[in-house]
Design goal:
The structure is a homodimer. In chain A, 41% of the residues lie in helices and 15% in strands. The first copy, chain A, is of the alpha/beta class. In chain A, β3, α6 and β4 form a beta-alpha-beta unit.
Chain lengths: 406, 406
Amino acid sequence: MKSSTRGQELTQSPIRSLIPFARKAKENGIEILHLNIGQPDIPTPEAALDRVRSLHDEVIRYGASEGMLSLRKRVCQYYSKFDIDIDTSDIMVTTGASEAIQFSLFSCFDPGDQIILPEPFYANYLGYTQMSGIQIVPVTSTLDEQFELPSTEAFYNCITERTKGIFLCNPGNPTGKLYSRESLIRLAKLVKEENLFLIVDEVYREFCYDGDFYSVLNIESIRDNVIVIDSISKVFSSCGARIGYVATRNKTLKNSMLRYAQLRLCPPHFGQILAEACYDACDEYLPDVKKEYNERRLYLYDRLSNMPGVKTYLPPAAFYNVVELPIDDAEIFCKWMLTEFQLDGKTVMMSPCDGFYINTSLGKKQVRIAYVLEKDKLSLAMDCLEAGLVAYNKVHQLAQSGQANA
Amino acid sequence: MKSSTRGQELTQSPIRSLIPFARKAKENGIEILHLNIGQPDIPTPEAALDRVRSLHDEVIRYGASEGMLSLRKRVCQYYSKFDIDIDTSDIMVTTGASEAIQFSLFSCFDPGDQIILPEPFYANYLGYTQMSGIQIVPVTSTLDEQFELPSTEAFYNCITERTKGIFLCNPGNPTGKLYSRESLIRLAKLVKEENLFLIVDEVYREFCYDGDFYSVLNIESIRDNVIVIDSISKVFSSCGARIGYVATRNKTLKNSMLRYAQLRLCPPHFGQILAEACYDACDEYLPDVKKEYNERRLYLYDRLSNMPGVKTYLPPAAFYNVVELPIDDAEIFCKWMLTEFQLDGKTVMMSPCDGFYINTSLGKKQVRIAYVLEKDKLSLAMDCLEAGLVAYNKVHQLAQSGQANA
């Protein structure tokens, strides 16, 4: 018996290969400052945790496949904050945004279909398209253009007879980009004309520092084309609860998604309890969280801007930044930082960006930094990066001149 | 934009079509006695719920993709009860048994591969094989033979060059069957000779009343062929927690499964806390649960055996029974029970069995009864079924003689 080809070929997360080196560094007593994963460090709303602590269920039963009605009502109410007019029947609770992505891809597309996706993109999209047999056609966005949504023409040029949808992440992971209302409405015209699905992952919607968030659920002309992915993971620091949503007004699509939802029976009960309470705590909780991330963002930008040879931009949203480093290969550099470098017993772990691109060479010199550490630690992490770059390039140049001499 | 063909064609649960009629009956003030779903009514271990209530996490973080180490250790310890010698690295925590099935199918098989599955089987297996593009080749087991594991020859006759595995449910849903050690070892020879994967769903392992449970993880000769699906849902009345497991010692397979696991990040945090505490409460909790189900089982068998024209057997395990009724079409009868029948304001809801077969006609006269109601209610449910059968056949015969006279 031979295990499946698809399983063995499924692309792994780009940071996966660094984990053994991080473990070894820890074993050697090095403190690792983790800027490599999108795991918020900010406490989950205490009131929401209290709700879970005070649960009085006698039997932890199967819930509705589409999620608790009270939670779906609460999500609709929350969406009205963004002027989104949506019905409880348009919201399905999923086991994290991951499952929302899975349900969306399986319900919209058949094997062999193509979707257009701006790169760099969240690496797990690639895994889910592989799992569902869909092909990604990348359209490139660049740091030089501050990861602006590619032009309608650029999207248009990617369209083939197999194209069935466009997939965006807004605000962007790994880019920290926020797409403007205008650019989304511009893209909507193409979506409408070409009769495509438009799937948008909006899980960072609450973290917009420069400019206002605009949801594609607001674009009336493409009501039936739009699918939005959402989650409490990032907004409420609740990644482990595994609660996400998929929102669509498309009836046929909802029907298909419900079939997939019924197959896995229901989303997690405790997580749903937590989620509902998170939205209740929303107004009190979120302003401070946003303020904290914004301070880190500005601090990070300031530090990075002052490092020689480092190219970056001030990301308007989310809690990520893509940074181009004065090195040849970010994966080798990130590994070197874990295996060969320390500054006062500390080092920093980052995500090499090649895994966020289909054209992996575009991310060769880039890393993604997630500012999920408090400012004191972020400061130490930047000290490490700055000193690490100097040390690495010294070693690297010596090696090169040694090679030149040899 | 047209939603996917695979999504629209995904087979739905066999009881799905009855739900609107059940809702309507409730609206009309009828009390419905639910024997239709495998949702245990017995309380979740109180000590396990207390563990969740006393959690002190500040941030609900992503956990390990393979599940909490402490939980996996606890599961290994629990497995030693069944003389299963297994390592923590062989256990992966999943979001319910559903996800364990999904990971197993995607990791073992490629689209177009065939698996042999005794029918009747748990209906969701069909959905997951469709989702993963695998073909089920059914081998029939029958009520007349007490749903005995089909002969090696019967399995052998199903093998083609595309056959890559055998999938069993033991103890059986919907059959309540328990496969003997001998029959499993007999099948293992075929598995070994033909180099197949053997996936066994053992989620009802704790509920064996006649005979001892024997896990395929105990068969040394097929160590690398075996994948076991497990879950806390049924054993600990914790369906909503969404915690399952997949256990395999096959390294290549574990590697593939981990890729799928990483893609969805991690299993639910709170559920894992509950699960660990469930195993701690195991010895105190399970004997009473088993005693309760056994009493219901015997009562149910006694009642069914005394109904004219009803064919059944005493199921040795799980909490289901497949019952053949003296009617032509179980789906029509089950619907009739919800729309046309009541006994003192009550009626009973059951699962028609056609959805548990690939050869749907085999289940035409059969229903699955889940004994997940306390004895008083079970008694009322049997009163309804008994009276319902008489009434239905009276109406039916009148209609037929009416037709004959016409």
